[in-house]
Design a protein that fits this description.
Layout: H1 3-44, H2 54-59, H3 64-77, H4 81-91, H5 106-114, H6 117-121, H7 126-142, E1 154-156, E2 166-170, E3 179-181, E4 186-194, E5 198-204, E6 210-219, E7 228-229, E8 234-238, E9 251-257, H8 271-282
Antiparallel strand pairs: 1-2, 2-9, 3-8, 4-5, 4-7, 5-6, 6-8, 6-9
Helix pairs in contact: 3-5, 4-7
Length: 307
């Protein structure tokens, strides 16, 4: 190797080492600056602590129009429905009784809870709101079927407070006329007779959610404790067995007990969830969806299913 080549290579190495030192210095400064900015922002913008009242979570006073619009927006913008549902509930403190009615308009819901989802979620400490996200994730993913076939006439309303559940009534009031379907897949935790709930079935899902179907007229053959059940599988027929014999009319009592970390023996109002599943099964499939406009345009037949 000639002397000139040696010094040339040494010069190149020196330049490379100098460049690397400068790059490492600039990168370190950038990282320190970024961490400082984040920590400073955290100091002056701490996460909002959040704890909902268990009674408010259980009552689930979420307006149906809001739930319906959030579902449509989640489909349109391809975001998980349970996420926008959870942040809407959290941001409204789970709709405590006596509070001002929450927003239900499509444009406001889109801006605040769908396109603004990440910004809104960052306002809360993850450890505080994660249990509520998990609650909605499990409920939305597991409740697949409405418990009554759509070609039967029935009615139901929000009876939370009077009942720890929802009663779906047979309009014709005939025992054994309307089949009862499992809303979820899972296995049967209980099936049989009880003096209060009459013929009943309790299905437990993979997440630990329990769904009770009570006051049946009869159980389907093969429905027994320990058996696996598929979503949409027949469990029995609507009746008025047990203490319901004293009250009439023929109905199905639905009760839902999610597995949650913030309460024991927790039951949640099934009514908003039933309305959502009913709409998803019997209304949304008939909707006309056009992408020629900014937001979805839906039309549907109003089915004589629910008051």
């Amino acid at each position: 190797m000639t002397r000139s080549k040696y010094f040339k290579r040494k010069h190149i190495r020196a330049i490379f080492v100098l460049w690397m030192k400068e790059w490492l210095f600039n990168t370190t400064v950038a990282i320190v600056l970024a961490v400082t900015i984040i920590l400073t922002w955290r100091v002056f913008n701490p996460p909002i602590p959040f704890t909902a009242q268990a009674d408010a979570v259980a009552a689930l006073r979420m307006p149906h129009q809001a739930m319906s619009n959030l579902y449509a927006l989640s489909q349109w913008h391809d975001v998980p429905f349970y996420q926008v549902l959870a942040i809407y509930a959290v941001a409204n403190d789970f709709f405590p009784q006596g509070a001002s009615p929450p927003e239900v308009e499509l444009d406001i819901l889109k801006k605040e809870y769908v396109t603004g989802f990440n910004k809104l979620r960052r306002q809360y400490a993850s450890k505080d709101i994660e249990p509520y996200f998990e609650l909605f994730r499990n409920l939305v993913s597991e409740l697949e079927y409405f418990p009554v076939p759509g070609d039967y006439e029935y009615m139901f309303s929000d009876t939370w407070g009077k009942l720890k559940g929802t009663a779906i009534l047979d309009r014709e009031n005939i025992r054994g006329r309307i089949p009862v379907l499992s809303m979820t897949e899972g296995h049967i935790l209980q099936a049989g007779w009880h003096p209060h709930s009459g013929y009943h079935v309790v299905v437990i899902t993979s997440s630990g959610n329990r769904i009770m179907y009570a006051h049946l007229d009869k159980l389907e053959e093969g429905v027994a404790t320990g058996r696996q059940v598929a979503a949409g599988q027949g469990l029995g027929a609507m009746g008025s067995s047990g203490e319901a014999l004293l009250e009439r009319p023929v109905h199905l009592h639905i009760a839902i007990s999610p597995q949650v970390p913030f309460a024991e023996d927790f039951w949640i109002n099934p009514y908003p969830l039933l309305r959502h599943v009913e709409e998803k099964m019997y209304i949304f499939p008939f909707m006309v969806h056009t992408k020629a406009i900014e937001e979805p345009l839906y039309t549907h037949h109003r089915l004589p299913l629910n008051n």
